[in-house]
Amino acid sequence: MSARRTARRPEWDRSAVYIGGRWRETASGRTVEVENPATEAATGTAADAGAADAEAAVSAAAAAFPSWSALPPRERLAVLERVRGALERRRDLLVETTVAEVGAPLRVAREAHVDTGLDVLRAYLDAAGDLAWEERVGNSLVLREGIGVAACITPWNYPLYQVLAKIGGALAAGAAVVLKPAELTPLSAYLLTDAIDEADVPPGVFNLVPGPGRVVGEALAAHPGVDAVSFTGSTRVGARVAAVAAAGIKRVSLELGGKSASVLLPGADLEAAVPASVDAAMLNSGQTCTAWTRLLVPRADLDAALHLAAAHAGALVVGDPARPGTDLGPVVSAAQRRTVTGFIERAEAAGARIVAGGAERPAGLPRGHYVRPTIVTGVAPGAEIVQEEVFGPVLAVQPYDGVEEAIALANGTPYGLAGAVWGPDRDSAVAVARRLRTGQVDINGGAFNPAAPFGGYGRSGNGRELGRWGIEEFLETKALQL
Q1: What's the mean pLDDT in 289-306?
Q2: Are residues 192 and 318 in the same domain?
Q3: Which listed residue (101, 255, 389, 465) is catalytic?
Q4: 128 CB neighbour count, 10 Å cutoff
Q5: Which of 50, 284, 378, 477 has the largest count of CB atoms under 10 Å?
Q6: pTM of structure
Q7: Domain of 169, in residue numbers
Q8: Residues 65 and 204 reside in one and the same domain
Q9: Is 255 tagged catalytic?
């Protein structure tokens, strides 16, 4: 990467938390470095907050909640409109920051991270404007009110989008928020907080406490002053969050892992479906919870599908995420690279055939946490690489005999977050999609809808984000009998 690209911007060197409407140093004064995964060099710093900072943030949020929730919804939405405008003015910086802290290629950072995040916030504003905040049911007046203090704990793979998917719904609902962003990618959250500060969001309505999950996350999940916890991350950590929060009878929303299948029905257009499925598996270097990491094809089409998948994966450009032509950047860390290559090595040792890519480092990239886009086949339904989330650029291709087997394979993991069905016509694809135990299914390449509900079945979690469903996660319902 060029010197211009690797230079540390002032916006990326931070040391404070944002509590009660002002920046302040952490109780410990500690900071952590943020690594650029493409260069392995420090690209910035962030606060290393602790339990005392979490306590102060919850207190500030609790103090701000009564007046914020009492505002008419249109007044809260006017504040959020200002936040969205402030984010729009930072769009280019947000893209550059995403490239630097996630390693996402420029196009992916712009379209999938930043612009999609802004679309999600826009959809929340539209949904809140249409929501029935009060309605008559017989002799009752039914009210919808903000739940209280919401702790939002977000992951590193989409640091702006994931934050907006939570706080957009929470703030629109009238909740007050404490945000704990991922330790690996906190810089986007700092820029969001700058926008919130510029937009004159009332003090305490939004608070930022970057820090380790085992400290800040646990403190928030356990805190008696927190009324709702919204967590996105691994299934293992999500289970811990739910267990800690359960003692306080908090509302808990979990968006966890996925092992989604792209199902090609007999007669589907392979030329369209296979490359699209590869792209979905490889997006953001495979670090996407909704990635279609399993491609299910009729046995008669297996060879053709493997040829198309290998050719498409082999044509993807892996390298410097700051270069406009790059398709895949690095994974987020050395630990994540070891995890992904370990899955590939174990699958190959167990007899899987590597059709494209593999565990070896990509040629010409001696530094950075890069993984080659990998296609594997010859894997059993119970194989680790079929059952467990890899969270890297790896696609497993499986043949099936008959549509009933395809549905059984698609439903044959503990997860149920997303997926796709490709058929010769919409009706046949929808008929199969209705039988998939998963929260969201794309039909013949259907586009992402930021106003539609998003969430999972089984080990993929509970609760829903986006649109009116994402607002309702942070609402209480009250009935007045008149």
Answers
A1: 98
A2: no
A3: 255
A4: 24
A5: 284
A6: 0.96
A7: 10-256+460-481
A8: yes
A9: yes
